Amino acid sequence: MISLRSSGNKLLLCLGLFLFCACSQDRIYRAEQFKVSINLNALPENSKPVFSQRHLKSNKQEWVGGILGHHQLPEWNEVLYKDTVIRIDPQVEAPYDAWSSAYPSAERSQFDFYDVTFINPAKTSFIARISGPNNVGNRYYLFTAQVAGLKVYSIDRPAIIEGDREWENRGMLQIGPDLLMVDNDYIFNQKTGKAFEITRQGKDRIRGDFAALSPDQQTVAFTTNHLLYQCHYPSGKIYSEAIDDLDLAKKERNQNKTWPYDYFSWIADANGRMFLKSEGSTKKISDETN
Questions:
Q1: pLDDT at residue 274 greater than cutoff 80
Q2: Residues with Cβ < 8 Å from 266, sequence gap 6 or more?
């Protein structure tokens, strides 16, 4: 015989499951190619929150990790746009300047958001890291609430390493109080919600480590192979300084905030753009920037 209390609990449980299923639905969004001209502040700051997050854990164990793996309960992070669970179809058509037939396509929909970073004050646009195939690694997607609905973009400019034709891993770095750099390709200003494209050396993504940010936070410098490569990202102008073997040795010994400021100084050109320049350099900044 079932008690009234037991029946009531079961009824509440069923009702809760019904409400969860009724109020939460999935939608697969196809990622488009990101462009810095896209307005990431389309909704006003006083709008109601449009995104929410939740952490889920399966009650069914799955084998994870290949031969050396083990059974575990899968966990994942979901992001909802209003009451809809966001899934991504990462199939993105290669941009017009892509020159590789290996551009990823036809991948399964993805919804596990490793991390979420808002990129504007109104929190109507964010970047999320999602794992891709082994030959691609992590990739970053941008989600922005527009007046017409949610738009999803792939922050992925094709980058084939010359010689081995493999895709480089992606990365996101906080380079200033309000500045995010993604893949050595884009700068996002979290205070203004604006995006900028970093000028590349060639077809490949800049193959170097972040070295410095100018005092006005408008020039980013990278330590590449025997070169201090710099980009004034608001204008796209570039300037580079050679790094000899002695400077490289100093860099290895000084992996801290003193590099590269002990060996280079910020100098402004005629237009006020700042670049790092060594004391003994006879190279004029205007040689590359104009």
A1: yes
A2: 214, 215, 274, 275, 276, 277
User: Is the pLDDT confidence value at 210 over 50?
Assistant: yes
User: CB burial class (10 A; 0-12, 13-18, 19+) of residue 249?
Assistant: exposed
* Residue reference for tokens 């989600």: 143
For residue 17, is it within any domain? no
Amino acid at 88: I
Domain assignment present for residue 69? The answer is: yes
Q: What are φ and ψ of residue 193, in 5° steps?
A: 75, 25
Distance CA 88, CA 101 (A): 22
Instruction: Quickly count: other Cβ atoms within 10 Å of residue 117's Cβ.
Output: 15
Q: 160: which DSSP letter?
A: B
Q: Is residue 43 part of a domain?
A: yes
Residue 107 has pLDDT above 60, yes or no: no
Residue 38 token pair = 């896209």
Average pLDDT over residues 165-182: 80
197 within a domain of the structure (yes/no): no
| Backbone φ/ψ region at 216: left (φ over 0), alpha (ψ -120 to 50), beta | alpha
Strand bridging mode 219-224 / 209-213: antiparallel
CB-based burial, 181-203: b 16+ in 10 Å, e otherwise = bbbbbbbbbbeebbbbbbbbbee
What is the dihedral angle through the alpha carbons of 79, 81, 86, 91, rounded to the nearest 10 degrees?
-120
State the pTM of this model.
0.78
DSSP SS3 for 6: helix
Domain assignment of residue 73, given as a range: 25-170
Of the chain, the end-to-end C-alpha distance in Å amounts to 88
The domain total for the chain is 1
